[in-house]
Amino acid sequence: MARGRKFLAAGVHDTAMILSRNPYPPPNRFKAIASIAPAEVLTRPYPIQHSNNPKSSKKPKNLFRPTKIVYPEDRLRTEFYMDHPWELARPRMLLELDGQDARWRRWGRGLMQPGMKLSGENVVQRQLWLMQVKKMSKRAAYDKARKEFYDLRQTEEIENRIAIEEARMVGAYFGKTDLQVGMEMEAQTYNAWKKWASGQIAAIDSERNAAYANLLDDTEESEEVGVVP
């Protein structure tokens, strides 16, 4: 055995066979180890490099560590949500029907896709399609997808406002909005803090007044002791 090398993984199958000869039942992984045994060589081919520059001739490092998977949408998604942080506060549906929802997407037709609610992901996929298919620059594709997103979001807000007005005309009643609830919670927290702060100030003033009164008493006693009749 070479010095500094560890071959423990290569002997897993042999150890499992020895254990199987004992009266104890074989481990559950015995069949998997027998069919897919660990490699007994120390060489390892270069793993597939997931990067934006597949033509790079730079040799990979850390061959025995998993490579970092990078998708072209990652940077586009980061830039969009940096410009539109409030879009992250909108609820999203993460449930898929069969795990192949992406095959029904046709980003050449626009941002709106069947079964997919309008979100920042629509902008990212639309921008990526414009860059890869239409060969547009990153900035031009972003501006085009962003403009389409603004138009659809504005239309969505107008439709919601009209629906609320029509519902109120026939007697519907809506509770407090999220903004109103948040403002009330903020006011309650502020009043509680104001009450606590007033108590703290009163306690500090009381301690200061008591300390000042004790100082006056000590001064008067010192003067009385020093007076000669």
UniProtKB/TrEMBL annotation:
Principal subcellular localisation of the protein: mitochondrion
Cell compartments where the protein resides: Mitochondrion
Pfam families, A to Z: MRP-S25
Alphabetic keyword roster: Mitochondrion, Ribonucleoprotein, Ribosomal protein
InterPro entries assigned to the protein according to its UniProt record, in alphabetical order: Ribosomal_mS23_fun
Top-level taxonomic group: Eukaryota
Entry annotated with the keyword DNA repair: no
Gene Ontology CC terms, in alphabetical order: mitochondrial small ribosomal subunit
Keyword presence, Mitochondrion: yes
Gene Ontology molecular function, alphabetical: structural constituent of ribosome
Similarity-based family: Belongs to the mitochondrion-specific ribosomal protein mS23 family.
Subunit structure: Component of the mitochondrial small ribosomal subunit.
Name of the protein in question: 37S ribosomal protein S25, mitochondrial
